[in-house]
Amino acid sequence: MYDVNAIRADFPILSREVNGKPLVYLDNGASAQKPQVVIDAITRAYSQEYANVHRGLHFLSNLATDNYEGVRAKIARFLNAKSEDEIVFNSGTTEGINMVAYSWAMPNMKAGDEIILSVMEHHANIVPWHFLRERMGVVLKWVDVDSTGALDPQAVLDAITDKTKLIAVTHMSNVLGTKVDVKSICTGAREKGVAVLVDGSQAAVHLPVDVQDIGADFYAITGHKLYGPSGSGAIHIKPERFAEMRPFIGGGDMIREVAKDGVIYNDAPMKFEAGTPGIVQMIGLGVAVDYMMGHGMDAIAAHEDSLRDYAVAKLNGLNWVQVQGTTPDKGAIFSFTIDGAAHAHDISTILDKRGVAVRAGQHCTGPLMEHMGLNATCRASFGMYNTTDEVDVWLDALELAHELFA
């Protein structure tokens, strides 16, 4: 049975107050809080187990290496990858997408080749492709969402031409909560010989992910949204794509031998992991995904769906709140504006006075904001530890904001 109160007890920060009010943390879309087991693992790694990995033969180095490398198998299980050798460690989704841009796209694309993007992509899944546009003459093609925020997979596939080399698409919108049918996109793209990169930053924390079923060539996740440390993340890469990639960053661990006249590279995934890694961050991420899997991704998804449905029912009675993204099966993410109200930052400030933490701004989605005709929104994004009582506190705070701006 899913016991949200027991889960909340695992997160020490949830017991604190902000501005004299109990903290209601609804900024999970930006970064999630950390359970005590993750905090303890980080503390233990630094205080009792720390050493550099891979390079030493002494006890602490071997221990740190075992703990660090053990995370690869955990993430493989979390994503249902066929092998842990398909998992490349990095600092998060931004680095993962940039690695694909430099390591795979640059060697395999030329001027005039096309990359298809949806209009609701995060800047982390836009800017690296602009690099290729600026530096190589690659063409970016955009696919819009409909009035509910839904992305039609067929519209994405219909945008493919004989010049299309890559589709880069989110699995779940960080603004609208829209779940994208990435499996259909991957299936159709594969039939046309087009690679697909999926930004799984939001989806992986809210619902079960099976990369074998989805079939993406690249699937990126970020640790700080998965109740793990910042500076941690990973990307799943199909083995056949590794053969088409060149190293992104050069340094230790990604080589077997270095001589004056050349180098011999390591095998993947090590070939793409240069330098001293975020050892403790990755150990913390391993504990975080263990924690999530211990509660069950299906159970987490069901709990968050119940929060979404409760919030939708309440919001339907507030005709002065405008919610962006209304697909029925969306994630528990609500971007909104208030009729007649000032900037989203003002709304956020009022909510903060009631202890409610939300995000305000463009949420790193400039093209989506332009598509919606908005300068900014507030966003309340829910996680595994949030409750219906917190939905009520959030909406009560919105009532106050509405009264102040009326």
TrEMBL record:
Cofactor(s) this protein requires: pyridoxal 5'-phosphate
Cross-referenced SUPFAM superfamilies: PLP-dependent transferases
One annotated GO molecular function: cysteine desulfurase activity
Key words of the record: Pyridoxal phosphate, Transferase
Gene Ontology process terms (BP): cysteine metabolic process
EC number: 2.8.1.7
InterPro entries linked: Aminotrans_V_dom (IPR000192), Cys_dSase_SufS (IPR010970), Cysteine_dSase (IPR016454), PyrdxlP-dep_Trfase (IPR015424), PyrdxlP-dep_Trfase_major (IPR015421), PyrdxlP-dep_Trfase_small (IPR015422)
Gene3D superfamilies: Aspartate Aminotransferase, domain 1, Type I PLP-dependent aspartate aminotransferase-like (Major domain)
Catalytic activity: (sulfur carrier)-H + L-cysteine = (sulfur carrier)-SH + L-alanine
All copies of domain Aminotransferase class V, residue ranges: 24-392
Pfam families per the UniProt record, alphabetical: Aminotran_5
Free-text function comment from the UniProt entry: Catalyzes the removal of elemental sulfur atoms from cysteine to produce alanine. Seems to participate in the biosynthesis of the nitrogenase metalloclusters by providing the inorganic sulfur required for the Fe-S core formation.
Family: Belongs to the class-V pyridoxal-phosphate-dependent aminotransferase family. Csd subfamily.
Protein name: Cysteine desulfurase
Organism the protein comes from: Ascidiaceihabitans donghaensis
Native organism taxonomy: Bacteria, Pseudomonadati, Pseudomonadota, Alphaproteobacteria, Rhodobacterales
Gene: sufS_2
